[in-house]
Design goal:
Order of helices and strands: HHEEHHHHHHEE
Helix content: 40-55%
Structural class: mainly alpha
Strand order of the largest sheet: 1-2
Oligomer: single chain
Strand content: 5-15%
Radius of gyration: 40 Å
Distance between the termini: 90 Å
Largest sheet: 2 strands, antiparallel
Length: about 250
C-alpha cells in the first residue's frame, strides 16, 4: 500500500513557496510559517519570563538574605562569582595526585642532603661583602685615616672586603697559582652554576615540605573517627592548613 502511495505522487505537482518580490528585496528573505512559529515561541517565552520576574519583584522580602549575596558581585552590570584563591600550585597538585606520602618524604630527604652538600662547598662569602654595614675605626691622633691599609696591616685592595681580609705578613707567605684569564672565567662560571643549583634545590625542598605537610593533614582527616576538627587557618600555596582537634583522653 505504501509503495502505491509513493508511486501515485510521481506526477504530483510540486508546490513552491513564494519568494520576496523585487520591490521588497531590501527587507531580506520572505518569512515563512516555520520561521514565524520560531519567532512567536521565542516572544511568548520572553513574555512569560518577564511576567514571572515582575511577580517575584513585587513579592520580594526586603529582609531576605542568602549566602550567594556575599559570594558574588556585580562588575560592569554582570553578576560574577567571587572565587577563592587557589591554595595549591600546579606542581603541588601534580605531586599530590601522582605520588604518595612516602615518596614525598624520600624526595624531601634527598633534597636536604644535596642542599647540605652544596652548602658545605659554598660559603656565601660574596653575600657578606654585599651587606650594607659599616666598620668604624677610631683614631687617637688628629691625623686623617688616609693610611688605613697600613694601620690594619692589609693590602689597599682588600679594605672593602668584610671576610677573608688577610694581613700583609700572611700575603707574603702565600704562593698563588699562575692562572690564565680563561681558567678564571671558567671557575667563576662553575661557581655561579653551583649557586643557581643550590637555589633551585632549596625552592624544590620547600615545595616538597609544603606538600608533605598537606598530605599528612589530609591523612589525619581521613583517619579521624570522631567529629571533624575545626579549621583555624585555610591552606595557602606556602603553608598547610591548620586544624584544631577536640581533646581526647588517652586510656
Amino acid at each position: 500500500m505504501s509503495s502505491w502511495i509513493k508511486a501515485s505522487k510521481v506526477n504530483q505537482k510540486t508546490h513552491r513557496e513564494r519568494h520576496q518580490p523585487e520591490s521588497r528585496q531590501k527587507y531580506g528573505l520572505l518569512e515563512k510559517k516555520k520561521d514565524y512559529k520560531v519567532r512567536a515561541r521565542h516572544h511568548q517565552e520572553r513574555e512569560r519570563v518577564m511576567k514571572l520576574l515582575k511577580k517575584r519583584a513585587q513579592n520580594r522580602n526586603p529582609d531576605e538574605f542568602y549566602f550567594h549575596m556575599i559570594n558574588s558581585k556585580v562588575e560592569d552590570g554582570r553578576h560574577t562569582e567571587i572565587r577563592e584563591e587557589d591554595e595549591h600550585t600546579e606542581d603541588q597538585i601534580k605531586l599530590m595526585q601522582t605520588r604518595d606520602l612516602k615518596y614525598i618524604n624520600m624526595r624531601a630527604t634527598m633534597e636536604r642532603k644535596k642542599i647540605e652538600r652544596l652548602q658545605s662547598q659554598l660559603h656565601f662569602l660574596d653575600q657578606a661583602n654585599q651587606a650594607n654595614n659599616c666598620h668604624i675605626h677610631f683614631n687617637d691622633d688628629d691625623q686623617s685615616l688616609g693610611n688605613l691599609a697600613e694601620k690594619i696591616d692589609t693590602h689597599p685592595d682588600l679594605i672593602a672586603r668584610k671576610t677573608n681580609r688577610m694581613r700583609m705578613s700572611d700575603l707574603k707567605k702565600i704562593e698563588l697559582p699562575d692562572l690564565d684569564e680563561d681558567t678564571i672565567k671558567q671557575m667563576l662560571s662553575e661557581k655561579r652554576k653551583s649557586y643557581r643549583e643550590l637555589e633551585r634545590r632549596t625552592n624544590r625542598e620547600k615545595e616538597l615540605s609544603v606538600v608533605q605537610r598537606k598530605l599528612e593533614i589530609k591523612s589525619h582527616l581521613l583517619g579521624s573517627k570522631q567529629e571533624q576538627p575545626k579549621k583555624i587557618k585555610p591552606a595557602t600555596k606556602d603553608a598547610a592548613p591548620i586544624y584544631k582537634w577536640k581533646y581526647e583522653r588517652k586510656k
